[in-house]
Amino acid sequence: MSYPHGQVSALVALIVSSSKTIEAHYAKSSKPYVPSLDDLAPHPLDSELSPSEVREAVQILEGACAQLCATVARPNHTVLNKLMQIYEPGCLQVAITFKIPDILLETPQGMHISEIASKHLFREVRTDVFANNRLSLELLSTAPLNGLAFHFTDENNKAVTRLPDVLADSQWGHSQSAVNTAWNKSTGFPGSLFEWFEGATPEGAKQGARFGLGMIGWGNAIEAGGVVTAFPWRDLPPGSTVCDVGGGIGNITMQLAKMYPHLKLKLQDTPDRITQAATNVWPAECPLAIVEDRIEFKAMDFFVESPIKGCDIYYLKNIIHDWPARECIKILSGVRNAMKSTSRVLIHEHVLQHADRVAEIKSAFAQAPEPLLPNYGVGRIRQYSIDLDMMVMLNSKERTLEEFTKLGGEAGLKFVKLWDVGELGVVEFCLAA
């Protein structure tokens, strides 16, 4: 459908409708209102998974607001604003490096700009006096998102400036090697990002540890925990084994342990992450699973060995997107070699959507209502931002359902089903006949 003269009104109508859906959701909570940014008290809905209709309403609202602004503003106005967004990561890095949210937490009345050295992301309570708001509290040094903020504003932000150099390089520009990346250009390190994170240098080890914690913040922000209720774990027989392959410190596995005590869980990753999980994170966050012997920690290198054999479910969250196709096939082939006839593989990642509108029967996901872009535009922008992140840091990518199916087939796996669990998808495979 074309909206040559009414697109603005149509987008406004989507904004109004989505806002009403969100307000109605808040109205049913114990605090029946949408909090303002200045409200520092946590809202009960902050820690709850959003219902699908609310999650979609937020995505429509984000996409429609951005598309509306881009539609009504002059093109040069919009492009200039996008160019100047380059400064935002630097300002965020200043805030978290100097722990400004932590400092302001001790001074709720606010501090003068000359004392805190930054004036971004906070609220101005008086002229040049700033205090925290709901957003800056997410950057406290104790908040999980803090580690990811450092990753994006530090190593990632430095690396992306070298992307043109890599693409112009006669050898690196066509390479799919994980050691020919913009991140390699920016650091001069000859190995992969994960070798760096595993302690190639003290700085690398520090960044790896904070990245591991940051992935908890990432999972919370994108509501990756939706897989805990959207997939039928409850229907698995008692004693069913779930192996979290490359699961870091085990954020999703901890959620499974707390909700489904009938499962036997296995967490596998590199030695540093397994040590961090077994000695620090799980004893503090999920000790009962350790006491009841429902969790096994085992270090592995999935390029050298297969995961623990004979598990019912092999779960890989944000693993395949870290690697080019050749390495992905090697990882999945290792999993295939560990599987029994009834095993299933679950790949939990962004499943890229195209921006062109197609017949619903051909679309893996529901498409946004017109005149919004069918992939929700800015409402689902993270899948494309992470796609760029993978290219810059690892020479990898996010993938479409067709690309996942192709990778699985080349590793001896057969596609079973796509589970829509919110922002991410879960691609289920079984053994190929």
UniProtKB/TrEMBL annotation:
Protein name: 3-O-methyltransferase 2
Domain of life: Eukaryota
Domain (O-methyltransferase C-terminal) ranges: 221-413
Keyword Metal-binding found: no
This protein's record includes keyword ATP-binding: no
Sorted UniProt keywords: Methyltransferase, S-adenosyl-L-methionine, Transferase
An example Gene Ontology molecular-function term: O-methyltransferase activity
SUPFAM superfamilies listed in its UniProt record: S-adenosyl-L-methionine-dependent methyltransferases, Winged helix' DNA-binding domain
One of the protein's GO biological processes: methylation
